[in-house]
Design brief:
This protein is an alpha+beta fold. The protein has 4 helices and 10 strands.
Length: about 180
């Protein structure tokens, strides 16, 4: 399975070094992207769309998405979004998730998602971390000062332990 990590409002956060700690989780590629005060890192294990078009972090609708897991009902959501005017360049679930978040907003998209996942979505001043309702994919959030860091695998050490407090291993079905 893929791996993701990142930070919001943490100057000097070294995403590249931390991605090396989880590189084995994503042998098909790695990427780093920024949106406002957020920086996302992702390592990819390609399952649904094997092309680079679904590489992450993924840009869509002015937002940036890092996603781990699988949206099982992505085909149905894709068709619903197409009927509402969305156009797709990929065949995978990553773009469908990004389109759903961009089109419907997080609060309306989350209840429609069936699958096992965790994601980070940043667009302008909005930054959301979320996890599936069953908790199959981990999401760890650490706070330092006004900023915070996250990861889908705690060995990524999102922050130096002595200078950051674990906020929580986010409960299933919740947003942080």
């Amino acid at each position: 399975m893929c791996g993701m990590l990142g930070a919001h409002d943490l100057p000097g956060f070294d995403v590249a070094a931390r991605l090396e700690l989880i590189a084995h989780r994503g042998p098909d590629g790695a990427g780093i992207g920024t949106e406002g005060a957020a920086i996302h890192g992702h390592v990819r294990l390609a399952l649904l769309d094997l092309t680079d078009a679904s590489a992450q972090p993924f840009r869509y609708g002015g937002g940036l998405l890092s996603f781990v897991g699988e949206i099982w009902n992505h085909a149905e959501l894709r068709e619903e979004l197409r009927r509402q005017g969305a156009a797709f360049k990929t065949t995978g679930d990553t773009e469908v998730l990004a389109a759903a978040l961009s089109t419907w907003g997080v609060a309306r998209a989350l209840p429609r998602l069936e699958g096992m996942f965790t994601f980070a979505w940043s667009r302008r001043a909005e930054h959301v971390l979320a996890r599936d309702r069953f908790g199959k994919v981990p999401l760890h959030v650490h706070r330092r000062g006004r900023g915070f860091a996250w990861c889908s695998w705690d060995r990524a050490r999102p922050c130096d332990r002595e200078r950051a407090a674990l906020v929580r291993a986010t409960a299933p079905g919740r947003q942080a």
